[in-house]
Amino acid sequence: MPDLDAPQRQTPDSLMLFGFWYRALPADQVRRNQLHKATLLEIPLVIGRDKKGLPFALRDACPHRGMPLHCGQFDGQQVECSYHGWRFDAHSGQCQLIPSLTSDQKLKIDRIYAGSYPCEERDSYIWVFMHEPGPSGAGFTKAADAPVNVPEVEKFSGKYRTAYLTADMPVSVDHGIIGLMDPAHGPFVHQAWWWRKRESIHEKHKHFEPIPNGFRMSAHTPSSNSAPYKLLRMYADADSTTTTIDFVLPNMRLETIRAGKMWFSSLTTVTPIGRSQCRIDVVACWNIFNAVPFVPSILKFVFAKFVEQDRHTMELQAEGLKQNPHLMLIDDADRPAKWYFGLKAAHLEAKRSGGEMKHPMSGPVTLRWRS
Predict the structure, then answer these.
(1) Is pTM beyond 0.70 here?
(2) For residue 146, which phi and psi values (nearest 5 degrees)?
(3) Which tens digit of pLDDT belongs to each residue from 12-60?
């Protein structure tokens, strides 16, 4: 494993991690009795809802001749291929009908499967669990259940509001993730009179600790040069406001802000679509400012502004990345990026060897940077 204290020139490997839940599509875009295309980890999927409204996910290719299944028909229970009319159960992918078979042909169609994936709806999104792919050219069998629960935004009261945002990024998942956790770009990318100014840069120190499959920026007082945090402290009339930020493999950033009984929580993911394309999805839940008119619209505007600024930055960065440059990671501001690559390498090695995953962090550490 590389020395995480040394300056590094590192090109993200763009490897995509299977064996995790990923957000596929916003839930409000998936309607009953309709078929929708999606791509996760370079795998084409067809997403839909059955007649009861339950979501499903199948490999978007008929096992007969490879016709995309999203081109076919769906009756609320079975997906019919548009090429030869083969029909598949929407949830299991098991073949139900091959119209061309005659009565004396004994093909056991129940052994034929279109690839299916565990699929659940949670916090405004349809999630799909991406099992490890089988050997190249191998057919599909009945899919196993997901071994872990689908992630969700943490909530701290029964009543709250929710909003989501999504944006495509023309870079690999690695660049999307290290951009997501980068603490030093804010004053340059996210400048706004209502947030912070470039001139507000000052030295900061934050405490980090290892957690399973990730790391945590320990509970701390939010940045003093961010206007919304100041407003929150005044509104909540709390003795203190604290923020906790976790990063967890494969792609999740969880942030929680607490101010007395008031709270704000978000789960941001960077979803790998292909080797040079990813998507950022943000879901936020909160109970702050509920009595103040227009706050949901204002919060969504702020998040949309942030996401668009990040998207534009990634678009510009993609131009430079076309030359495949060597990249430098420095301490302390880029240490979270080093941890991410260390976590990813440790996960892949543990999967290869069958041993326990060796966390790249040996214990708590304090990082310092200016932003």
Answers:
(1) yes
(2) -70, 135
(3) 555 889 999 999 999 999 999 899 999 999 999 999 999 999 999 999 9
Indicate if 365 and 263 belong to the same structural domain: yes
The encoded tokens of residue 298 equal 């204002």
327 pLDDT tier (thresholds 50, 70, 90): confident
Last residue of a domain, one of 130, 151, 179: 130
Residues 79 and 169 in one domain: no
Nearest to 4 by CA among 348, 244, 245, 358: 358
Q: How far apart are CA 49 and CA 44, in angstroms?
A: 17
Q: How many domains does the chain have?
A: 2
* DSSP output for 1-19: ---TTS-EE---------S
Q: How far is CA 97 from CA 42, 48, 75, 338, in A?
A: 29, 20, 14, 51
Instruction: Copy the structure tokens of residue 75.
Output: 């009756």
Containing domain of residue 222, as a range? 161-370
Give the three-class secondary structure for 319: helix
Do 125 and 170 fall within a single domain?
no
Q: Which has more pLDDT, 110 or 225?
A: 110
